[in-house]
Amino acid sequence: xxxxxxxxxxxxxxxxxxxxxxxxxxxxxxxxxxxxxxxxxxxxxxxxxxxxxxxxxxxxxxxxxxxxxxxxxxxxxxxxxxxxxxxxxxxxxxxxxxxxxxxxxxxxxxxxxxxxxxxxxxxxxxxxxxxxxxxxxxxxxxxxxxxxxxxxxxxxxxxxxxxxxxxxxxxxxxxx
Length: 176
Hints:
single chain; five-stranded antiparallel beta sheet; extended
């Protein structure tokens, strides 16, 4: 599962003749969850390989090339990788993907905020701290005999994929 945005950036390659060639590349930023599940042979157990990934753009840096300066995104990425054994219907909780972000802000009245003593009256300093944690809840279920309700059957039929029909040659059509 992916909930991501594509962030474009300029990728520079130096050529043998001394110039640089710029191409646009994309970096995925957002939330991803990779799950691989295997049914264990006994006791309604499920072996799961989980890899949640959380990434955000935290800023930009300017990379200087021969033909100019190019902004490049700075991506903060948090991920974990684990394999576990879970009973059918048991909920697992994965945490620990923490981030602490501190933002400082200074607002002042031009010129008056720069005065040595009285400048404090015309200046505001603020600081904001944001703590975040990505927590993943997963509950695997073993479906032994699936029974769809009327609404589920209708939704299944509406989303059924009808791909292109294979083309048959005249010789293949004559064999039928």
